[in-house]
Design a protein that fits this description.
Number of strands: 7
Order of helices and strands: HHHHHEHEHEEHEHEHE
Shape: globular
Structural class: alpha/beta
Strand content: 5-15%
Strand order of the largest sheet: 3-2-1-4-5-7-6
Distance between the termini: 67 Å
Number of helices: 10
Helix content: 40-55%
Oligomer: single chain
């Protein structure tokens, strides 16, 4: 490679890096320092092997970089969801937990888009979102189903506050009821046959989704995020609980198509990958269980 060509390549790479790093004006001034402190604290911890520290440090750095990618995507395209069933919904600058960029791009949990289409087509009277976080599903579905009532639950107070804000910013506040803890006994307050449950509670689904404690679940349609592989004992137990009453669709994680998002094309390849990262520890699958009698 000639010197001129090499210099041009360096310039291109520098511009791509700067396209992410240069748009930090809206970040908390202490954000970078907090990240560095997290790394320093990690490296000083006792009882962790070098490999464990490296793994944890990688996640800290990846989250930091993903945050910068998100700020860049907002800088160039604003806060409206780009694609998918919730396209046009205005997102908050910060989510309650987990990833931001995939939600803004509209590719977040894109494996579930056909399920969302089915839910919208069915137009349930009641949508019960347990583990609503900042309201991505609760508000997104409320926008698509103006005649439905959405019930959003999260044990985290900040999540509930952000869900309320997102609902207000998208004109859906009057049709969303936001509450805290949801127990198996609470299912009895909803009618079988006209209720869909969307459940993402970080491993607590086995305790909550129990037809022995809540017989009305036999008449609900249920979308649930699982944790660990589909063949994990707890997941298999959950499937067995509903095998006699529901048609069960198993949904596995899938790849993303970078070329479908033109605003990512000029980014470094690592930044492109981080734009799709949903901050998961593993390939979590989902179930969509449709009640046979509902």
């Amino acid at each position: 490679m000639g010197k001129l060509a090499a210099a041009r390549l360096v310039n291109i790479r520098t511009e791509r890096i700067d396209s992410v790093a240069a748009h930090c004006e809206d970040l908390d001034l202490d954000y970078h320092e907090r990240t560095l402190k997290s790394l320093a604290d990690l490296l000083q911890r006792d009882g962790l092997s070098s490999m464990d520290k490296m793994r944890a440090a990688l996640r800290i750095c990846a989250r930091h970089r993903a945050h910068l990618v998100g700020n860049t995507v907002v800088h160039y395209g604003g806060l409206a969801v780009r694609t998918g069933p919730f396209a046009g919904m205005t997102m908050p600058r910060q989510v309650a937990e987990g990833c931001f960029v995939p939600k803004l791009l509209g590719c977040y949990e894109s494996e579930l888009h056909p399920v969302i289409d089915r839910i919208v087509g069915r137009a349930y009277a009641n949508l019960v979102n347990i583990g609503c976080a900042e309201g991505y599903y609760a508000v997104g579905l409320a926008r698509l189903l103006p005649d439905s009532r959405v019930w959003a639950y999260d044990t985290d107070e900040k999540a509930r506050e952000r869900c309320a804000l997102l609902a207000s910013e998208n004109g859906a506040a009057e049709r969303i009821t936001i509450s805290g803890t949801f127990t198996p006994e609470d299912f009895a307050g909803f009618p079988a046959g006209d209720t869909v449950v969307i459940c993402d509670i970080e491993g607590g689904e086995l305790d909550l989704l129990d037809p022995r404690q809540a017989p009305v679940l036999a008449g609900f349609d249920i979308q649930v995020e699982l944790h660990n592989r589909i063949d994990a004992p707890g997941n298999q137990e959950l499937i067995a609980r509903f095998a006699d009453t529901h048609e069960i669709l198993e949904i596995q994680p899938a790849e993303r198509n970078i070329d479908a998002y033109p605003e990512l094309r000029d980014l470094e390849h690592l930044d492109q990958l981080l734009a799709f990262w949903e901050f998961r520890n593993g390939p979590n699958p989902w179930l969509f269980m449709t009640a046979r009698q509902g």
